[in-house]
Amino acid sequence: MARAISSRTFLTCLALFSQCAQTQKYCNPPSPLNVTYKPNFAVCLATVEQMINTTFTDQARLGEWNRSGCFYGDPANGVLSLSGCYDLCGVTYEPWPWKDTFDRLSLWIIPATMLMAHLSFPPLHWSNYIFVILHAAGNPVDSLWSLLTRLKMHRRLRRTAESILPQDLQISEQVATVFAAYEEIGWQDVSEHFKKSYQAQRLDEREITIIRQASHELSVMRSVSMPSTLAAIATLIGTLVTAVIRTIKMVELENTRVNNETAHTIAVVSLLFISIPQVWLSARLGTFTTVSGAIFTIDATNARLREQSRKKRRKTPLFPPLQLAICPLQTPICRLPLSPCPLRPLVSQDCEKMSKNGRMPAIPKSMDEKYSNEEYSNVQFSRKWPKMASYMGMNSSWRPCKHLNADSCDPRPRQLLFISVCWVVFGACAPAVFLSATNHANKMPIGIGCRSLTWLGILGLWLFSFAFDYIFQLCIYRSSTLRDPANKLWLLWHCSLVKDGIITGGITTAVLLVQVGLYNSCWCRASFTFIVKLVPYTIYEWKTAQVLWTAIPSSGLTVIFELLLFVELRSRIPKDSFALVSWEHGSPLCKSGEQVQRELDLLTSASAAKGACRTL
């Protein structure tokens, strides 16, 4: 079987080589041609059609042109060889008319801008807006993986809170909101700490009210834009429909392969499909409207809870002090815990030993302890947080730590990575490549050309960008020159942004060059087959092109939305029943208006009852 496949492959390559050798004959026209250096394919097509209608009716002239090497096969078919295209049409490239170029650019730039505007932009310095866009466009695999990890982490925190407080799901939702706020700031998981404190001593009414107030304040300062996000996604899908209709209408009107760039514009729109899951996940997570509001809310909540703990003599506070994450760059290794010393205020001996061995970085000191440099004190943390927030947790699309729990062999991070890669490869790049590879002149089903190679190059850049970040993160993690994890994250963040900026600039330049007309040349029209076909579509080719222009991008959208449903739908099997599928919740921080109003009503009623008790 393998031998038969190799023989068939060898014969196919041999046939293609002989075809290329046949069509690479030097063009020697029997009569001089008035050809300019800059090509004009519309004039060239008119010349070919005139030759078919007049010159080729003479058998003698037909034989001369057949021996000239300017045509592929029978000259009456009007199929040019590459050398013939150079001699009949022109040598360089023909830029598209500026009006057509502007129409094509406006077709996808506006929806692309609308989609990018719906990414999660924390209220940081204006440069952070540029950084988020660069990372989303320069490394979509890591951006999607980070968003999925945060969404899964927030959902896991909700389920953990429900398991701790199964008797009251409303209180568990409010506890999960506080958990998610901790996780947002420095990837700190406090669910285990809360569970131990709660199991030692249950919550009283005053503590429930304090947690409910914190949940309400955190949710109010959370920005969610799901309706506008759906509108932006619908606009992109409408752009795809518009591009397909314009392509079909243009070809029906012109009935020629001369003006075929709008068909490749569909491929550019397909590349933009990668923004759909990014903005969807960003809307499901939301972002805080203030930089330090969540920090002040958590600090005030902990202060009120400590006061209440002293009254009821609770030994362990419900929530730990706010601090940076421990070992956020640690790479999971099977049979080793994620954090050998989780959430300890001081650096213990085992962590010091592992730090010296280079297996994990030194742990940051507790935020509520005042050391000589006061680097991690609460006051310094609140002051420095606006400068550190961009690379310490507020940007949901950038997360070096992809762990979901302490089990380093948990398969879910790898599953989320697989989903992210499928979105990029099969949802965006594959439709673009196949659209351009099937829009060519020869009889082969798929022919690689300049545009399809460009889209493959963009896919290669995206995969290289992810691999670079992953390898560079391992190098930074094992570096012994930087002891502070915050400094490691700062270096990783800025180096990644420089790389993302270069890659984004290269991708943007390549797409613009395609749209302007750099590929509108004989060489790119030949698609490496040395055959240039400018004559009108046949009925079969026209029907096939319509099907491909519609089906290929639709398949990319199908892949994207199927994976979104896989992420959003949750299956559960009740006892003695069939499996049920339900819509998964988003982040606990993103509450609906009804939930926020319900919390406010409960707080108001509790305050009124407390005031009545004081009056009595």
Automatic annotation (TrEMBL):
Keyword Signal included in the entry's annotation: yes
TM region positions: 230-251, 263-281, 416-435, 455-477, 489-513, 547-567
Cleavable signal peptide: 1-23
Keywords recorded for this protein, A-Z: Membrane, Signal, Transmembrane, Transmembrane helix
Keyword Repeat: no
Protein name: Uncharacterized protein
Species whose genome carries this gene: Lepidopterella palustris CBS 459.81
